[in-house]
Amino acid sequence: MKAFLKAGILTEDGTLTDTNAGTPQGSILSPLLSNVALSVLDEHIAHGPDGPAASRLDRAKRRRRGLPNYRLVRYADDWCLVVSGSQAHAEALREEITGVLSTMGLRPSPEKTLITHIDEGTVFLGWRIQRHRKRGTGKHYVYVYPAKKALAAVMAKVKTICRQNTNLPLEVLLHQLNRMLRGWTAYFRYGCSNATFSYLRSYLWQEIVRWKNRKHRRTSWKQLRRRYGIWPANGDVTLFDPARVSTKRYYYRGTRIPTPWPSTT
Question: 173: closest CA among 92, 234, 252?
Answer without folding.
Answer: 234
